[in-house]
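Possible regression after last week's pipeline update?

I re-ran a chain I had predicted before the update to compare outputs. Posting the input and the new output here so someone can diff against the archived version. Not blocking, just want to make sure nothing changed silently.
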Amino acid sequence: MSLHRHNPAELSPPTGFSHAVTASGTRIVFLAGQTALDGEGKVVGAALPEQFETALTNLLAALAAAGGTAHDLARVTVYATDVEDYRAHAVELGRIWRRLAGRDYPAMAVIGVVRLWDEECLVEVDGVAVLP
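New output (post-update):
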């Protein structure tokens, strides 16, 4: 399996994502949206950074259960209830990402939403991974 990240010079330099990712492998893992719910279904944290860390941890746990690692992520979508707040915390969220998932960034998008399934949740993360 291999993932190749493509960041053409004619595009704006990517910060915390890759413009395109090509993948070759034998299994695709579609990861359901994960929020800041703990194992008992309770929301962890009131602030975006705490919730993002829990949501990403949950996403990586689901991926690990399917036999993958953060390196296998080809695409991630972040749904935020307040994009301005997300941008304000971008540096901190980047540190959380690098600590948990490393520096091999997938293709990513951040999408503003009115609300998530659990009203207290501020962020949801889903993804696609390609495994050997």
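Follow-up from reviewer: compared with the archived run. The chain has a mean pLDDT of 93. Marking as no regression found.
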